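hi! just following up on the protien thing from before. the input was this:
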Amino acid sequence: MDQSANPKPPPLPPPRRRRRKKAICITAVVALLLTVIVIMIVLGFTVFKAKKPVISVVSVSIANFDFSIGIDLRVSVNASLAVDLSVKNPNRVGFRFSNSTALLYYDGGLVGEAPLPAGRIGAGKTIGMNLTLDLMADRLLSNRNLYADVISGSLNLGTYARISGRVPILFVKIKVVSTSTCNITIDVTNRTIKDNVCKYKNSL
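and the predicted 3d structure came back as:
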């Protein structure tokens, strides 16, 4: 009888050898996963680390400024400021920010505001925002110091703008905030801006 027609199956490897191969495969997979995780963490804290957006005041100008003093010494003021902002996103990923409001102050009291609509800034990009801050005449005229400031020829105002949003880094979104605060002095006689000093603050 020809025995070559029914070859014997190859012998199975010993159980110990099979367990060893399985352990090697599992170890290799775990090592690969750990390597990928370490690389992602390193990239998250270096290349893709969340950076603070930068909001800057490019220019401030008087869009409208009219005032008058009646014979009864009553002051009438109608004014608005044109403010050009720039927002820079230094991150390597896009940044979305939510709705906000730019505020205008006189003598510590709120006298004007303008909306800052929500938007998105691409990675490494800078966008511009053009705002018009209208003075709330009733609030401004109710301040007892207004008359003295107008007579002195200088009107001191303050602006405040803030944007906030979240930057996606790996599997988490990190909140970032940027603010600008400016002190503006208006020359009442010439209807021009005499001085403008701004401070900026950014935080994660």
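DSSP finds three helices and ten strands in the chain.
Residues 37 and 101 are 40 Å apart (CA to CA).
cheers
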